[in-house]
DNA sequence: AAAAAAT
């Protein structure tokens, strides 16, 4: 990493910045975040992951970035969790900026963007744990996530970090048929932290099983998706309205790696209109969102069939040598087809998508996490947030496109997918399989959007070319 | 198109 990544370089005050702050500009303070350049910190979070973070804070609450966790007045038990269980030594850059904003009264809301693999989860989990009153046996912190897999993953982080705190927690997930009990029969939730999917959380609230009057902090993980995507949006807004009714001062945290300008404006408006508290913002320019540690490639192919051939003849062998691989496909159907084809050729792959039984989904993820499987085919179910450090190869079997206009790329999903590789600054590679002019056009648009050129693998039939690519990515 | 939810 070049040194100037650490200088807190301040981008020109762009339209982006002023557009975002809907507060009168006089009261908006634009902070450049200058962090003490402690290069020799052995933090498991990589400090170069968020080089330029811009923050907008309305009003006059001053925030000083935290260089050490001790500055955040955390409980001894929580500090122990951070040091002993998580292995942290000092706050990563995103933590040092966001944690003071989260933990300083009057507990303003926060819209926070940070790169993939930079440790957003640890930020909001720490926020939830530190704001819970251990003496009160009632729901005080609630976290909403788009998928079952993300709920489970976030809960694992919470349990680890909160190991010594005695804070109680529960997952709000649909249970499989075998263990089904009607909501009305279920006992009221007394756990202090709840992490769940929107459907189940709404159901619990509607059935008066989840009280919202003691909630101090509400987190939306993958917030751009949760608040802007139809289906999720309605559920999320319903949850917020219910909470604001009983806890109008509840702090709202919105976290994601992506907030495009439209969504950013929309999301700010919702938070502003529903909650009394002002909000702080933290964001990264889109040109800076591509991870330096992940090298992207494109492979041009003559027809759809050759995609399977490339996976079979090139990717599968290389994947085995390199680490773990996720192959993203657009539909469940093509997931199944690719799966069948590879199995027929004698390869070991597993496939995950939303229509599988919940227990199967859990099992497939578990096996992948344990390293029992090396190649996982997935729909966009796992595009966001899935954190498996051994994944260093991502294949876009299909490019991510907008659903009602398939000639337009879904830039956000693209970024999330490639972010499954290169967790916390690790090296990674991405192969985009392109077939025809349309794919090339979409790829070009993605490159333009992020202002990031993607190298072409010269020949899809050449073993050497693929090896060369992985060498270039630092994987061989 | 995919995701979440349960009937």
Task: Estimate the mean pLDDT confidence.
Answer: 88
Provide the β-strand percentage band: 15-25%
> Rough shape?
globular
Domain unit count: 2
Q: CATH homologous superfamily of the largest domain, by name?
A: P-loop containing nucleotide triphosphate hydrolases
Tally of helical segments? 15
Fraction of residues in helix: 25-40%
CATH class of the largest domain: Alpha Beta
Structure report:
This protein is of the alpha/beta class. The protein folds into two domains: 282 residues, Rossmann fold (3-Layer(aba) Sandwich), CATH 3.40.50.300; 179 residues, P-loop containing nucleotide triphosphate hydrolases (Rossmann fold, 3-Layer(aba) Sandwich), CATH 3.40.50. 37% of the residues lie in helices and 18% in strands. The protein has a nine-stranded mixed sheet with strand order 1-2-9-3-8-7-4-6-5, with helices on both faces. A seven-stranded parallel sheet has the order 12-13-11-14-17-10-18, sandwiched between helices. A two-stranded antiparallel ribbon has the order 15-16. Strand 15 and strand 16 form a beta hairpin. Helix 3 packs parallel to helix 4 and helix 4 crosses helix 5. The N terminus is likely disordered. It binds one DNA strand of 7 nucleotides through helix 6 and strand 15.
Describe the protein's topology.
Blueprint: H1 15-20, E1 28-32, E2 54-58, H2 76-85, H3 93-103, E3 109-113, H4 120-131, E4 141-144, H5 148-161, E5 169-172, E6 193-196, H6 198-206, E7 217-221, H7 223-228, H8 232-246, E8 251-256, H9 261-274, E9 279-283, E10 294-301, H10 304-322, E11 324-328, H11 332-344, E12 350-352, H12 358-369, E13 375-378, E14 391-396, E15 401-402, E16 405-409, H13 411-418, E17 428-435, H14 436-450, E18 455-457, H15 463-472
The structure holds one DNA strand of 7 nucleotides.
């Amino acid at each position: 990493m070049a040194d100037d990544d650490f200088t807190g370089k301040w981008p020109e005050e762009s339209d982006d910045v002023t557009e975002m702050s809907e507060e009168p500009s006089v009261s908006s303070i634009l902070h450049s975040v200058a962090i003490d350049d402690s290069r020799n910190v052995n933090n498991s979070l990589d400090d170069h992951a968020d080089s330029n973070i811009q923050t907008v804070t309305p009003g006059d609450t001053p925030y000083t970035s935290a260089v050490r966790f001790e500055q955040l007045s955390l409980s001894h038990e929580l500090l122990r969790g951070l040091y002993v269980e998580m292995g942290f030594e000092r706050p990563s850059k995103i933590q040092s900026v966001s944690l003071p904003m989260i933990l300083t009264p009057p507990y303003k809301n926060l819209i926070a963007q940070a790169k993939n693999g930079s440790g957003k989860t640890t930020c909001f989990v720490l926020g939830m744990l530190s704001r819970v009153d251990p003496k009160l046996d009632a729901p005080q912190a609630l976290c909403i996530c788009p998928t079952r897999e993300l709920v489970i993953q976030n809960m694992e982080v919470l349990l680890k970090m909160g190991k010594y705190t005695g804070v109680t927690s529960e997952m709000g997930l649909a249970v499989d048929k075998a263990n089904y009990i009607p909501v009305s029969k279920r006992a009221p939730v007394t756990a202090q932290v709840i992490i769940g999917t929107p459907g189940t959380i709404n159901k619990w609230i509607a059935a008066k099983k989840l009280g919202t009057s003691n909630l101090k902090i509400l987190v939306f993980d993958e917030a751009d998706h949760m608040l802007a995507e139809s289906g999720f949006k309605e559920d999320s807004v319903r949850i917020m309205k219910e909470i604001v009714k009983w806890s109008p001062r509840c702090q709202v945290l919105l976290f994601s790696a992506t907030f495009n300008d439209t969504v950013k404006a929309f999301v700010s408006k919702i938070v502003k209109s529903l909650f009394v508290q002002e909000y702080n913002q933290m964001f990264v320019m889109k040109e800076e969102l591509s991870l330096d540690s992940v090298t992207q490639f494109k492979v041009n192919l003559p027809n759809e069939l050759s995609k399977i051939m490339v996976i079979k003849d090139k990717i599968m062998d290389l994947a085995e040598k390199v680490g773990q691989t996720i192959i993203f496909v657009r539909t469940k159907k093509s997931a199944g087809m690719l799966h069948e084809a590879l199995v027929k050729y004698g390869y070991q792959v597993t496939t995950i998508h939303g229509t599988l039984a919940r227990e199967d989904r859990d099992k497939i993820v578990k096996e992948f996490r344990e390293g029992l499987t090396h190649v996982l085919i997935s729909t966009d179910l796992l595009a966001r947030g899935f954190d498996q450090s051994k994944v260093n190869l991502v294949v876009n079997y299909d490019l991510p496109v907008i659903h009602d206009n398939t000639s337009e790329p879904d830039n956000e999903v693209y970024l999330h997918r490639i972010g499954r590789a290169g967790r916390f600054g690790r090296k990674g590679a991405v192969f985009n399989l392109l077939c025809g002019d349309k794919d090339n056009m979409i790829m070009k648009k993605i490159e333009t959007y992020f202002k990031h050129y993607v190298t072409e693998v010269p020949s899809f039939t050449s073993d050497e070319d693929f090896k060369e690519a992985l060498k270039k990515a630092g994987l061989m």
